[in-house]
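ingest -> validate -> predict -> emit
validate: passed (alphabet ok, no gaps, 279 aa)
predict: started
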Amino acid sequence: MPLNNHGVGRQVGPAEHRYDWKDLALYALSVGAKAEELSLLLESEGPTVLPTWAVVPSLRPIFEALAALEGDLADVLHGGQSIRLHKPIPPGGALYTTAQVEALYDRRRMAEATATSRTVDGQGELVFETAWSILYANQGGWGGPRAPKGLDKNTPAGDPTWVQEQRTADTQALLYRLNGDTNPLHADPAVAKAAGFDRPILHGLCTFGHAGLALIRTACGGDVRRLAAMHCLFRKPVLPGDLLTTRVWDLGDGDIRFQTHVVDRGDAVITAGHAEVTP
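emit:
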């Protein structure tokens, strides 16, 4: 069944998202925070909020907007993700997100939908923005517009400035889904096998969170406030228990590039990664 082109331009929100330190600590643990990173985990420390948490309050309004395309969620793949921070995320309270479907492109075998969101605090001040690339398998070929040439930056040649290894737990997807993304592909073995996987796979956004934490530990010197923006493409799935390695290149003036691989299989799971880091 073809996607509904009339869904382009659909806007939803503002959707309210209330949260407290427990939600933030859960998210940090679900993307690999360690016991010594107490500023991310203790209420007495705030806690400080990982910038990649921006995807959590954005998820529901984004998919409510995408519902206007009438696509089959069983065919959905996450193509890419971006976040941009405009101020530190408060350690609790309420945020308000407006989401919109921006475009729908024909990629021959697949269709690509792009959607964006803006999140403000209770005073109406912009806190962060997100951009999503969502792929619909077997939904292309209707003669629609082609996606514009991307602005993704190539991974630089030469040795990376830093390398960060992160072992995911065999319960990682089961932990991450408690943030609100309860797609059974990431939890139910029968659903995963029906989709062509040997077992449940990790959420792309969980891998995104691991990469973001790797950037904070390296390029940001442990300071979450320095990560101003982050973008990447998702290439291959990660299995819970996989060992990830994120290679980070510092090109100067806050221009950071990164790529994430699964060590055992050698698969590049995140590519075209770039980030902006403040001094």
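The radius of gyration is 18 Å.
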